[in-house]
Amino acid sequence: MAMDNFDRDDYFSNRELSWLLFNERVLEEARDKENPLLERIKFLSITASNLDEFFMVRVASLIDMVNVGYDKPDASGLRADQQLSAISEKAHQMINQQYTTYNRMLKKMLNENKIHLLEIEELSQKQLDFIDHYFNREIYPVLTPMAVDSSRPFPLILNKSINIAAFIHKKGSKASQNEFVTVQVPNVLPRVVKLPDHEGHTSFILLENVIRRHLNQLFVGYELDEASCYRVMRDMDLEVDEEDTEDLLKEIEKQLRLRERGNVIHLDVEAGISERLVTKLFDRLSVSPDNVYRVNGPIDLTFLSKLAGQIKQPGDMVYPPHRPFVHYELLDHSIFHAMRAGDIFLHHPYESFDPVIELIRQASRDRHVLAIKMTLYRVSGNSPIIRYLEKAAENGKQVTVLVELKARFDEENNINWAQKLEKTGCHVIYGLVGLKTHCKMALVVRREEDGIKRYMHFGTGNYNDITAHFYTDMGLLTCNEQMGIDASNVFNMLSGYSEPPYFYKLVIAPLWLRDRLLDLIDTEIKNAQSGKPAFIRAKMNALSDEGIIKALYRASAAGVDIQLLVRGICCLRTGIPGVSDHIEVHSIVGRYLEHSRIYLFGNGGETLAFLASADLMPRNLNRRVELMFPIEDEQIKATIIDLFDLMMRDNVKTRVLGSDHRYEKPDRRGKIPFNVQEHLAKLAEQQTIRRDHSLREKRTFTPIKGRANEPFNSENREF
């Protein structure tokens, strides 16, 4: 089939509508009766959080396109205005389903488990006395009622803040002579307020309902006509001209302040709001009716995660704890000796993230270590890696850290880390102009008896010790000499003006990753055409790049067997005769967030295996510094291939993309249920039990074969 035949609109799905399908799959987990109750509550909260970010970034971007008259259609043939119309219809349906799930299923089940989210009229006298006292003592001093009249303009409504809009009139005057007022529900106070209750019951009330009960106290001499909650979302995309700015950190700080004043692109109101009050909000906020969402319940369901977190003894209402396997041979011995013995594969959260932290910890104290270099995209709020990088600088190591200031919604956090690291003597860089640095890599340079040696960690996920507990990611600890040279070259590119002509092992975007992937796909096409076995197996978070999708179509048309695990967006269509009938797409949505990126190619019988930080999206291939690294250790390669096969076997948390572009769970009739995440977690627990039993029997530590066979060297500990 000619290349031109793959350009048809109906061969591609719209990116935004595909994302909404992904969020539907998350919502299905909130509705799944097999999931524990509080986990279902959290899934519903996640769908709300996901949708918020979607509006603030993706919908805002489409609105900008319409405003500037950009009318070029996407690969699926939809212009920006057509996408907005389709999104509005689907998003309204999704939000209605969210509240149906909450009102008809989850709230009822919470009550059955003696967990109650109460309205004012449901409170006992003791609870009423409590909130009256709480309001006067804690809430009232913080509130600022805002009148709107000729001398007091409509105030700035903060992004995602809950607010109460009201009409009031002066006592003794006619109700028709009313005034508009608005009150922000303070975000410095907990939104979920725990109430006193009788034994065995746990009750809560939302902060906005406590305030609404006491609104009259804010407007002395006035009568309250009506009051209703609302929330706005603004365009939160950063617009930074990196070419013309002298100080990127200061420019991003400035843009963060301006972002709070971005255009309103979404308005949530309570379903019972009057037309008169909602019209007032329309006019003042300059939002179109298509972007107004009337919700049948509490605005902003993300509070549900906080509610679930306040249940002290959740019992079987949460997932049973999983115990990750801990590589004690890496933590209790020299990690450098272990890495010299061979490459080490890590699979989180089934294996502990501690070895990654330990690499930086040992490097910060080892007197033979000369330098540490790292890229940081997202880290936790109390990151041990940051602490050890600071300790390394204090111990005289040369520490270079690339902190990505443009990591969406982590900009402020990363600015703080950058400033903190600089104060302790680290060299902090912000990457290349016009590109986000999304690759995950750490490089430790160590002087040894036989000369300088480099030790690296390459990963598919962030250096975040918290998300490592529930994101599935893969990493490689290696001291491969050629990879070490490549890693040094990457850091030299990021910190200076170095442009190496080639790399030995690592594949970097935006320089070579796209071309390398296309070459690998073309090799599979040639193998299929010459009668050799040919396959492509890939796992990623999103697939939306038009060029890559066309290449996969060419491969499928040539007879290449293609299996894809795509958690989220997938713009490729399956089941098109002669085009994609050799392509199978699965999506796993479960307890853990699937985040690892795997790329496997048949290569005529000698399988090539790669892990990467990059999804197959235009932004990853064109506008980000990304890393794809080969897996050359045969045992590790076999492990990754086996893991991929296990994921494709999942029939519990998998949805399969059909030719109608709907995702359906596989038919399990006559088959044993197989949940790959639970399976891998149990394997990790069993491995831990066997290791612990072996340690008790021997009463001495024996390293795992092939990992760390050299004795512990005390000089490598803290000094």
From TrEMBL:
Post-translational modification (record): An intermediate of this reaction is the autophosphorylated ppk in which a phosphate is covalently linked to a histidine residue through a N-P bond.
Catalyzed reactions: [phosphate](n) + ATP = [phosphate](n+1) + ADP
Active site (record annotation): 438 (phosphohistidine intermediate)
GO MF: polyphosphate kinase activity
Keyword Transmembrane helix: no
Sequence intervals crossing the membrane: none
Segments forming domain Polyphosphate kinase C-terminal: 334-499, 506-677
EC top class named in words: transferase
InterPro entries hit by this protein: PP_kinase (IPR003414), PP_kinase_C_1 (IPR041108), PP_kinase_middle (IPR024953), PP_kinase_middle_dom_sf (IPR036830), PPK_C_dom2 (IPR025200), PPK_N_dom (IPR025198), PPK_N_dom_sf (IPR036832)
Cofactor: Mg(2+)
Domain Polyphosphate kinase N-terminal: 12-117
Keyword Ribosomal protein: no
EC number: 2.7.4.1
Boundaries of every Polyphosphate kinase middle domain copy: 127-307
List of residues binding ATP: 50, 471, 567, 595
Function: Catalyzes the reversible transfer of the terminal phosphate of ATP to form a long-chain polyphosphate (polyP).
Family: Belongs to the polyphosphate kinase 1 (PPK1) family.
Name the UniProt record assigns to this protein: Polyphosphate kinase
